Amino acid sequence: MKIRVLVCCDESIMSAAMRALLDQQPDIEVTGFATGRESAAAVAEMAPHVMIVVAPALGLDDKRELAELAARTKIVLIAKAESAHRSVEALCIGVRAVLAPDSSADDLIHVLRTVSAGATMVMPAAARRSLQRLPERPGWTSRTAQMAAELTPRESEVIVLLAQGKSNAEVAEELSVSLATVRSHVHHVLRKMGVSTRAQAVAIAYETGLMAAIGRTTEFRGQEG
After folding, report:
1. How many CA atoms lie within 13 A of 147 on its CB side?
2. Which Pfam families does the protein's record reference (predicted)?
3. For tag attachment on the chain, is the N or C end more exposed, with fewer CB atoms within 10 Å?
């Protein structure tokens, strides 16, 4: 079955370039195009698997509109973020992936396939590294400690792999466990972190400092061994 993709873009040249790229992929079908104002009606009519939203049709300031769209389909947002924290905000409202406008065509295709498969391609590696350097905020330490204590070592490994955009199958292969086990781990991670999507879990893990804490714990265990 082909991945049905709807493109939300206000610029005709960008839309044409997007169609030329996606039409070359044997497993992707472009169902149509819409402007920012037409996006909600287009999703209702075309029922895409994934919607590519290209700013400025809708951007990081349009949180209400993006949240409404994210509740109905999987959103891949292409927007220039002023900071990594802004991208985290988009993930927290349900956007599945945030890409910079200068991302490669290969990056976009990989993200579409990964998101369509149910996994979360959060952000490119460079953005993830910048998230790890976010300044701490009041309350982070206690919240991080609480979440870190609740996650098992295997669940911590799972959240790290989700942040890398791994699908369930890829996580299962990486950890040498079954798909059913991976689904169970993901369910427990979401429940313990009080979120409903993987993107939200990963965003909170970075924003609270949990991801950095997991990294430090992993290094400590390695030194112990």
Report:
1. 30
2. GerE
3. C
What residues form DSSP beta bridges with 63? none
User: How far is it, in rounded angstroms, from Cα 214 to Cα 144?
Assistant: 10
What is the reported pTM?
Answer: 0.71
Q: Which helix (H) or strand (E) holds 169?
A: helix 168-175
- Return the higher-pLDDT residue of 34 and 213: 34
Average pLDDT taken over every residue of the chain? 82
| Cα–Cα dist 147/224, whole Å | 23
Residues 123, 4, 37, CA angle at the centre, nearest 5°?
75
The answer to whether 53 and 96 are in contact (CB under 8 A) is: no
- The CATH number assigned to the domain with range 140-224 reads 1.10.10.10
Which pLDDT value is given to residue 211? Answer: 75
Pairwise pLDDT comparison (86 vs 76), residue with the higher score = 76
- Please measure the distance between the N-terminal and C-terminal CA atoms of the chain and give it in whole angstroms: 46
